[in-house]
Amino acid sequence: MNKQIDLGYRPETYFRPQKLERYLLSKVKGAVVRKKLQALFDSGRHAELSTLLTVEGISAADRKVLESLHPMFMGGNYLPDTEDGEVEIGRISIKSTTYDVTCVYARPDGGAIHYRVVDEYGGETLQGATEARTAKPMTLGEFADFFITAWPLIAVLEMNFEDDVEGALGFFSADSDFYPDLDRLCRQRVRDHFPTPDAGDECPFCGRFNSPPADDLCEHAAAWVWDGQIEALGTGQAFAAAIQELGETIGSAEHSTTAELILEKLAGQNPVRARLIDAASDGLEEALSLVENAQAGDGWSTKGMLGGSGYTVCVPDSAALDVLASECRALVRACALEIQTADTRQVTLEALRPSQRPDWQLVASGFWEEDTYHSGHIAYYIASIGPGKWLLDGVERNAMLDGVTQEDVDEGRLNDDQIQAMWGMRLEEAQSSEHRQICAACSGASEELLAKEMAEILYRAVCEGGGKEITEPDDSAGLLEL
Ligand SMILES: [Zn+2]
Ligand SMILES: [Zn+2]
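Above are the sequence and the zinc ion SMILES. Below is the predicted complex in structure-token form.
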């Protein structure tokens, strides 16, 4: 039984004169009924058989009785009828609840042979080319390809059994009066396609045979790649989750200047992070290549029509994965900081101003201008008021009085705006009067972000929120160079 399947085997004809019983048998569509009748035929009980058979197959009444006994008697009864001169040359039955049957019918067609694949659903389970025409009968290989491409056996089995090859093999049977090896060939195709349970490769570090499908792995196996799809294993799983979360954060950071800035700042300080951020957008395989000395196993493959290949990815030290995973999580956390700005929220943030004057550092100062009538001078200051907590203070003074001297005041050379700016004050007092407002506050900032970086993040947030943007910076030495 172990002889090689001859894919080139070609039956002489599909249309040889058949014994009447065999011909009639080929007209019986119900799979179970047909098997029983076939058994009668094989055991030589031909007289009994011919009384059971009519040219129409099983009578309608008998069919109803059989179907009421068990749905498996339904198998094949909803196939389209064969036309004149058409014979069934092969069928595949599956043990679905309704015992579905799919067949190939052939008929002589102007000196050639015309084939059609038929199912019990008016062709709904078929795809691609469901008809063919050849001069000579197809070889076994051609026939099997035509049949299980039009009716996608492997896909049907995969849908029902994923990688359970034994379950898949038990689910179908193929029969053909013309191709005795059809069933064996279909089985071989299925075996070749499904990953065999011992598929795997050797760990480059400890030499153990890793078998991801069997979940039999050494401590170095972090992932496996199958048909271009990567899946995390064992120690790689926490890392994969962290990388995925970082990837999602990066995806949403594309809509947030703040998050983009934070990632840029944190990456700028750390080349590993910069590469992690790149890799997180590309996926796990790219990210794993960041682990020093990570190596792929020598790989394995399955043959067959829909075969595939795979390999494991091993890392010498799982601690390296943990380090990278915590870098990912730090980046994700850093992007999750919460910023409030006075302008966007229509609320004052003054309540956040600490009673003890914090150590304000100048961020930048200069003139802002909304339009010709709204302009002024502002200086932004930043201070940390606790772990991860920062405030951005805006100090405004009236620039109307810049360059005004007491002499100008005394000689009445002030315009209306300048007079208003001095209202009730002496010149010196008015020139040094300030208006302070907390413009932005944040909590949850990464402690790695220093005043300079936080200054940029908060200042940008203020500008984006419609706050005062310095358009004409002073020469003062602030944290930001605008
Ligand atoms: Zn035709
Ligand atoms: Zn190993």
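The mean pLDDT is 85.
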